[in-house]
Amino acid sequence: MKKILCLLSLLISFWGTWSLPAQAADRSPAPANAQVYIISPVDGQTVSSPFTVQFGLKNMGIAPSGVDVEYTGHHHLLVDVPELPDLTDPLASTSQILHFGAGQTETTLTLTPGDHRLQLVLGNYLHIPHNPSVVSEPIVVSVE
């Protein structure tokens, strides 16, 4: 029994190590001219909470997570994330990295008063950013 458990542990360990670089291979291609951007609000705008954020995309299409269609993806909104996460890994779903895996193109945010940084990243069917990455310019909104 100990031999089986030891062998199983080694196999799991090996599989985990072997699969890590595979994520880079799971990055879907994106056209060089693909763009994701925030339509509204605009950079520097003062908004009242809650407010709507509209997402824009050029030269690619929207598909829900889990649906592998060439040159498509779904939005991820980074809220108050000071620097981009590793764009070769799946984007984590956190209170600051919001996933729109159903293909949504807008959301309503409720944020505390003050300045907030918003940025979009397009992810493929596995939530992995494309190659090259399709990332918006960050904007800052002031919530009153």
Keywords for this entry:
9 strands; DUF4399; signal; Rod shape-determining protein RodA; six-stranded mixed β-sheet; alpha+beta; 15% helix
Notes on the structure:
The chain is α+β, with helices and mostly antiparallel strands. The chain has one domain (about 1-144): Immunoglobulins (Immunoglobulin-like). About 15% of the residues lie in helices and about 35% in strands. The strands form 2 sheets. Strands 2, 4, 5, 6, 8 and 9 form a 6-stranded mixed beta sheet that branches. A 3-stranded antiparallel beta sheet has the order 1-3-7, with no helix packed on it. The radius of gyration is 18 Å and the shape is elongated. Mean pLDDT is about 90; it is low at about 5-20.
Q: Which SSEs are present, and which pair or pack?
A:
Elements: H1 2-19, H2 22-25, E1 35-40, E2 46-47, E3 51-58, E4 61-62, E5 72-79, E6 97-99, E7 106-109, E8 114-123, E9 139-143
Parallel strand pairs: 2-9, 4-5
Antiparallel strand pairs: 1-3, 3-7, 5-6, 5-8, 8-9
Write a brief caption for the model:
By secondary structure, the protein is of the alpha+beta class. The protein is built from two helices and nine strands.
